[in-house]
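Archive entry: two folds, one per protein. Generate the first.
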Amino acid sequence: MRTARGHFVQPPSEFPMARITSHEALRSILQPPRPTTISKISDRLDAQAETFVRASPFAMLATRNAAGTVEVSPKGDAPGFVRIEDARTLLMPERAGNNLAFGLQNIIDTGSVAMIFLRPGTGETLRITGTAELHDDADLLQSLGSAGRPALLAIRVHVERCYFHCARAFLRSRLWDPASWPQAQRISFGAMIAARTGGDASVAEQIDANVQRAYTTNLWSNG
């Protein structure tokens, strides 16, 4: 809620806060995983994981900077857009985007990454943790190209931990069930940016028009 001056304050909660600050306290609530659950964790992709990556059109890439701040960025293209170099190495292309480059800067600074691969209609997800580096070799970028355009950069990921996550989150959320989907929400970057910068309606309309152009004619470039 907000005060008369417009400042946001946390409303009082009807539930007292009991912060969990130790592994022991956590494990008093969540029991240790079964040995069989632990045994699914590997330091490389197996045949099922490789099949999943080759069929996945979408992944989330998490990075962290030197201060520990975490960023998560969506990455998507045709199924198999992430290439498997070997069982412990992946190549992810960097495509045109907003150029904020928070995640790419984090890779330069710390190299720590984590990924979740999704496959439409499949409730299980593939989780990968490891390190990464950026490359700009022209032949490599060309080989990772799409729609006639080379990748802007290549993100080489070295797998340190890999495992499938069960489907319960997707089953509970009914994410792949079209009958559960709400009407799509229209996001207006124009209205958001205009409100924060003092722009008027014409500024908002122009920004939204530029965004739509990026979604259509400029999907593969920032031109």
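Generate the second and append.
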Amino acid sequence: MKKKVTLKIPHELYVALHGMIDGTGFSSVNEFVVFAMRMIAKGGKLKEDSKFTQEDIDRVKKRLEELGYI
């Protein structure tokens, strides 16, 4: 059996993800998150020299505000 670890996410995010998977083939939030992380990891390592533009930062801040995190 493969070793596993526990990741903690905010409850609000869990609830949002639970709503997103309703009616899909995912049987749990955990299954969905593992799938999503595998898709992200498939892209390889992040470039150390990659820089976020001010537009990228503003977009992320706006989205975090919309989600109620800031």
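Annotation attached to the second fold: The chain has a mean pLDDT of 85. Residues 11-66 form one domain.
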